[in-house]
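Q: My labmate handed me this sequence with no annotations at all. I'd like to see what the chain might look like in three dimensions before we decide whether it's worth expressing. Could you predict it?
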Amino acid sequence: MAAMLFGGVVPGAPAPPPAAAPPPKPATPRAAPPAAAPAPPPAPPAAEIDLLDMAFDAPASAPAAPVDLGPTELLAPTPIEAPPEAPPAPEPAPAPAPAAPVDPFAASGLLDGLSDTPLAALESAADSKFEYNGNKMAPMAITTAQFGQQWGTLASTSPLSANSSKITTLDQYMSLCESIGAHEVEAITQTSEGICAGIVGGTNVALIHGKVSPGGKIDVTIKSSDASMGGVLAMFMQNML
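A: Here is what I predict for the chain of 241 residues:
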């Protein structure tokens, strides 16, 4: 009775069927072992070498085919390549300048206080003298009164006028007249005028009157005994100004 109460069996009910057995587990296939690698084939036997048989009985190999080189001229000259040009030779170094000669007089102090005058300065001083027909002008030493007397007797007049940047004072004008060979007769500072006199060839007289104005304007009048010489002297002074 207790079995029925606690076993869940109802009285009068048919007995339950027996429990079904669990299905069998499928068998897991086992992996096949790897196949063994095939054994390598045996090596062929080595060929026997017959020292007395040098293969003279072997069939001869076919001859090599002839190579066609084309027509060959035996006497044709063989071109010769020109040798490469040699690099240019380096330029020789310039020879050193010769040493200046030693002056024994200067070294001993014998020429102290003396100076050489450049040749160009001497030539320029000589060329500044007026020359006409191969004769250079020489100073004509006369007084102001004599200058005035001869001024009226000379018929030829050659005037000139210039604006000079080199001659701007009366003293510079008088020095110019002296440099061309004329004699300074008188310089009148009150009026900035100057008179000079010269002679060419011993006979041709030239009296020169000049006035220097502010700013370098110079007016010159030349009275001479030879009209041609007076004209040449006027052009010469024009170039000097």
